[in-house]
Amino acid sequence: MDNFDLRKYLAEGHLYENEMGSLGDELADEIEDILSKEDKVNEVIDPVSILATVLAGTTLTNILSKWVGKIFKKYNFGKGEEAAKKIESFTHRLEKDFKSPIKRVMGLFIKNEKALEVTTDALYAAVILTLGVLAGGGAVQALLKGDLNKSSILTLKAALKGKDLNSLIRDIATNIPG
Hints:
Elements: H1 6-12, H2 17-37, H3 47-74, H4 80-107, H5 113-144, H6 148-175
């Protein structure tokens, strides 16, 4: 199996299945290396934390790619702007992928495509809101315990959820039939 080549992905904008496996293997190896260096893992990682971190990472990547794209365009860094746009596009596709299970289930009950889109976005917004509230509550608890690092990370997650929620509400409002 070939190793994942980030530069090739950015240039071509395609991530093939065999590369996805290689990327997964590399990430698993890195995680295993990190975990083997520690005597024990002190915190339990639950699925909600993983989902919140992935979604926050996607939002942060989207924000950074927009910012980097503007800088690359301003200073004419060749293909850098195009690569940043591909990353931004990838984050939008990833958001649609997160919505797809909701849409699939709701599609069993809602046949009108416009109503299905609005309902899917609303339920996804509820998930994002819940994750944001959990991150905000966790930030307050960490701050009360004096853990500034954890508090800062959870505050960032909550802020990123706020940005996502703002975009979703805007999309919902424009899609509601009037």
